[in-house]
Write a structure and sequence with these properties.
Keywords: DNA integration, DNA recombination. The chain is mainly alpha-helical. It has 21 helices and 6 strands. It has a 4-stranded antiparallel β-sheet. The radius of gyration is 36 Å and the shape is extended. The relative contact order is 0.06.
Length: 557
Amino acid sequence: MKNSLSTLTKAQYTKAKLEWKQLKSPFSMQHINRCVILASQIIFFEEKEKLKQEVKKQDTKRLSKYEAQHNLRLIFTLSGTVSFYSAFPKSSGIANTKLGEAPELTIAKARKLTEQMKYGILNNHNIKTVFDAYEQSLIERHNNAPTKFAASSLRTYQCRIKKLRHHFPLKRAFQSLTAGELEKIVDLIIKAESNNQAIELFAQIRRVWRFAKNKFNSGKNPAADIDDFYVSDRVESPRPCQVYTDLDSIAELWINLASAPNVHQKNAARFMILTGIRPINIPQMKWEWLNSIDFPTLITFPASVVGVRGEMKNQKEYKLPLTKAMRAIILEQRAWMENALPNCNPDHIFLQPRDLNKPFAKRSLDKIIKDYSPVDAVKGDKRNIVMKGSAGAFCTMCRSFFKSNAKAIMVTNGYHFKHAEELTRLALHHLRKEDDPNGLNYDKSEELFGTSTKLKFNVFKIHEASILKRAKELESQQLRLTGMQSKQAKNLKENNDKKALRDRIKAHLVHKGSYVDFINQPLGDTGRVAKDLILTEEGRAVVERYLSDQEAKAKNN
């Protein structure tokens, strides 16, 4: 072969090139053998011409032939090797891979392999395809049973899949991943993500592989071979929030909310303080849930029905009796809405201040609680602060305080501890499966006599009375700084520090142009320009030390 190639002329090369183009699929082994000879001649001649033209030698050139009808690609090299590859379009989601080489693999056997891959008998889907299929199954699950798999749960799962896409080689064949390789990916996740995220993503990996086991991996599940405690043994498990607040802090928050710039902000937060309901339920509240518009005494959060998810976390109906202060909030909102119509949302009770056509934003509640609570509203051992409480006051502390406060008052008033526990649980809609293990609840006292509602009303009334009483006592006293006031004071001090440092720089330099040059050039060995250093406390300390050193040198000289 080498001797014949060394004497190859341009005419022979041109003839070989023409014959190569004329050879079309489907191919027989005889055709393939002929392609081997032609490919060797073409590659040899073209590489020899590149050397003559002093073109830098590239990687060994290859020539390809395709059998599109059988999703096959044949690759020919100078040495005479013939390799068979699958050639499925990207839209198929099947990862293309090497099938084998001739003569061990014939064209007929290669066609059979691609046919098996095409119809799922021999799976070779890539990881991206499996993730897409899993995500689509979640969407279908939500569409089929929204009461069991909520839109919020769907978004959570989709966010986790999005994170996993960053950690996995998406083009790689799903079937090729082993348990050992999955462990290496999990190790990277542990390094890159927070402890809680690592635990959640490991659980999500197992869900994906369990889903794909029979569909895409021939019944194999390498994720199940990883130790159940692989991640939890390597990271600290997330702890529940153990911090809390007290009556004085809640009473001061109630007082401070009077200065909120918008009636919706004030009333939404105050309603949450009085009721202890979850922050997500405040934006959901609708006028149609009230038993009366003129004098409401009850608001009913609907249960789930077929195809429609309920408003409460446990999907059960929740009747919230309205106390005097709660009713005042609702009536104030109603009066505002009647004056604002038709330029506002007519369905929801609490609206967004910036867009009155939308219900109140759940995240806005968190900011309001942080801004108007006293700076030290969060109580308890600082070591017990996890995500909640790390940035100060938080919404669910109102729910926690409701249970603690109401329970303490009832026990003080003579209630048995167990009865106080059950009543606060009833008021907060904390239902447990063991309360009715067989699902056969024959108690219709609520429907007939409103028994549960009356009991809840008493709990809400004593909780409300304690807050309003303490708020009245504190009104004439000096209140603590709020989170917003503390932040403003901190910003003011920081701005004054920046100004003082800039003035010192100007005093150190003579010309205005020198000041501009100074703040725009790297300072010492920090590698950062002075104007950026001035923005942080650590950076200002660096600039101060530099100026002090310069002044000391000037005195010595």
